[in-house]
Here is the input.
Amino acid sequence: MNCKMLAIVVYTGKDSKIILNQGHYSYKHSSIEKTLNKIFLIQILQVFVLCAIFTLCGYGFVSEQKNSPQYNISEQSASRVVGFSFLSFFLMLMRLVPLDLIINNEIGKIVVSKFIEADAEMIKIDDETGDLIKCKV
Here is the structure.
């Protein structure tokens, strides 16, 4: 059978099948990841609260010692001193948040996924071709 077919694309906008079939993706997170995220959020909030408290205490100290010659803090530089003290407190207190726990968790998932992929009991034989189908994580 010989037949010719001609087609013209009339409309390729937001109502096309490709756009309508895209949908929204939902990413899977384990319960450990959800718990760790909550813990890290609480710890970061604690760091900000502690930084604010320490900075306010530092501001009280700086405002009392403005005229002291040993600190040499003028009225113009007082706000900069307080701002830098907040940043320095933040850098020091961020050590309270264990970021290596996230890294260890991700590396552990990678190692376990490689063990699952290498498991001999997770291999299936294709009925049609007889090929081995390995598990993919």
Q: What stands out?
A: Residues 99-137 form one domain. The first helix runs from residue 17 to 22. Helices lie at 17-22, 31-64, 78-93, 99-118. Strands lie at 124-125, 132-133.
